[in-house]
Write a structure and sequence with these properties.
Strand content: 5-15%
Distance between the termini: 15 Å
CATH architecture: Orthogonal Bundle
CATH topology: Arc Repressor Mutant, subunit A
Helix content: 55-70%
Number of domains: 1
Amino acid sequence: MSMLAKKKQILQILVANLNNSEPQVVHSEMIADKLEMSVKDTCQMLKIMHKLGMVISDGEGEKSLITREGLKCVDQAFGGTACSV
């Protein structure tokens, strides 16, 4: 799976969290399990996405939430336009 595909899937998981009545931070272990990735690789990806402004993540990439920029990227991905994911 490409990095772009992984980033999109991570964003989709974080969007799904928003559908909860009380959204909470999403732990990297849960994301790693869903995507069948190592926790180390997932944390690294979340740190990169944090630097790009797509997620807010703790310093270690262990807990994350999606940002408005991340939501825009999800909307663009489903709308067929390009995003700097």
